[in-house]
Amino acid sequence: MKRVLAFAGSNSSSSINVQLANYVLNHCSGADKKMLLLTDYNLPMYNIDIEQSSGIPIDINLLKAEISRADGVIIAVNEHNGMVSAFFKNIIDWLSRADRNFLEDKKVLLISTSPGARGGSSALEYTEKTLPRFGANVVERFSFPSFQQHFNVDAQEITDPLLQMGIQEVIASFLNELEG
């Protein structure tokens, strides 16, 4: 059974990207699944002086170990002002300092959502171009527009049939890549 790890790049307690990541992970049938909250990891803002004086934070090594145990990784990319959040960028900075190829041989499904019609697509594009530098094989991506209009939080379901079909196809393709 393939092991799938999911997390979102948001540090918001009400993150819509965490909700979307949970939804996608829950629909990865036949996989051993684990959801991480990056806010559970205590990390300073990356700084070469901190790295040289204190080394790599233990929480980064713990996160890197979780990633290394996974066959596939689902990353929900949040967007702040058309870019990835500083919180998520900080996590990537620390992980890449601990191991430049921290995503080596990992099949990655990138997803994003936002309240707006673009669904975090700018941050998603940036992340899709950046993660291969760290060994990732981005096999699928999905931008989910206008989250509040198309997702029922109480029922944990997508309300738009086309978006539902699209995300199911992306999940199926991702799982197929893991088996291949």
UniProtKB/TrEMBL annotation:
InterPro entries assigned to the protein according to its UniProt record, in alphabetical order: Flavoprotein-like_sf (IPR029039), FMN_Rdtase-like_dom (IPR005025), NAD(P)H-dep_reductase (IPR050712)
Listed GO MF terms: FMN binding; oxidoreductase activity
GO cellular component, one term: cytosol
Superkingdom to which the source organism belongs: Bacteria
Pfam families reported for this sequence: FMN_red
Domain NADPH-dependent FMN reductase-like, first and last residues per copy: 3-144
Name of this protein: NADPH-dependent oxidoreductase
Protein source organism: Dokdonia sinensis
